[in-house]
Amino acid sequence: MSTSSREVAGKIPLQMVVIRPAKIFDISDVMRIERESFREAYPRGIFLLFLENNPDTFLVAEYAGRIIGYIMAYMRPDLEGHIMSIAVDPNYRGKGIGSALLTEAIERLIKRGARYVGLEVRTSNTRAIKLYERFGFRKVKRIMGYYSDGEDAYYMILPAEEWRGN
Ligand SMILES: CC(C)(COP(=O)(O)OP(=O)(O)OC[C@H]1O[C@@H](n2cnc3c(N)ncnc32)[C@H](O)[C@@H]1OP(=O)(O)O)[C@@H](O)C(=O)NCCC(=O)NCCS
């Protein structure tokens, strides 16, 4: 289902938003949100491969039959649960969808034995950084020139024992 970028969502009841594992038929919607959210977009093959390898931790947010956000997370061999990407349809931001996706991904990673959850974020992305800090993530490192346009990243982590679910 496609979303007009001019359409603006009003209030949406969070209890009607379903967070569920992504399926192959969601990938086009995920790619649409990705294109609207990031300067560089991954090719479809990356999403399909990620889905094949991480079916439990590639999640989408669905509201009234429409995909309005996604999160891609996976477990590293050293038991770091890693958030590779998170984005919410621009028309549905600021309504708790990103928080709901992040909560479900963190819970799934920690249940699977993650000792901590890590992610990289652009140093200019203050909104996302604020969101992560509210969840208890801390900046532990600045990675110079991490992004292809030369911008630095913060590497942030949330230790499992500090997650409120524990
Ligand atoms: C970062 C991102 C995923 C957050 O998603 P989101 O759905 O807007 O997140 P939330 O709504 O849960 O929280 C964001 C803000 O909305 C506020 N909010 C939460 N629920 C709300 C509600 N029901 N009504 C109004 N505001 C609400 C939060 O307090 C938070 O405020 P803040 O801006 O002061 O931090 C989203 O902004 C996005 O897709 N950005 C572009 C892609 C990106 O940068 N991804 C991160 C890469 S590392």
Verbal overview:
The chain is of the alpha+beta class and 166 residues long. It has one domain (14-162): Aminopeptidase, CATH 3.40.630. The protein has 4 helices and 7 strands. It has helices spanning 27-37, 44-53, 97-111, 126-134; strands at residues 17-21, 58-63, 66-75, 80-88, 116-122, 138-143, 153-159. Strands 1-2-3-4-5-7-6 form a 7-stranded mixed sheet. Strand 4, helix 3 (97-111) and strand 5 form a beta-alpha-beta unit. It is globular. The termini are far apart. Mean pLDDT is 93; it is low at 1-7. Bound molecules: coenzyme A. Coenzyme A binds at residues 37, 86-88, 93-99, 121, 125, 127-128, 130-131. Coenzyme A is lined by residues 37, 86-88, 93-99, 121, 125, 127-128, 130-131.
Our count of helices gives 4
Beta fraction of the residues?
25-35%
The rounded distance between the terminal residues' Cα atoms is 37 Å
Percentage of residues in helical conformation: 25-40%
pLDDT under 50 segments (min length 5)? 1-7
Instruction: Give the cofactors and ligands.
Output: coenzyme A
Q: Any idea what the radius of gyration is?
A: 15 Å
Output mean pLDDT.
Answer: 93
CATH architecture: 3-Layer(aba) Sandwich
Report on the biggest sheet. 7 strands, mixed
* Overall outline: globular
Structural class assignment: alpha+beta
How many domains? The number is 1
| SSE pattern | EHHEEEHEHEE
CATH superfamily: Gcn5-related N-acetyltransferase (GNAT)
CATH class: Alpha Beta
Report the strand count: 7
Question: The CATH topology is what?
Answer: Aminopeptidase
Query: Strands of the largest sheet, in order across it?
Result: 1-2-3-4-5-7-6
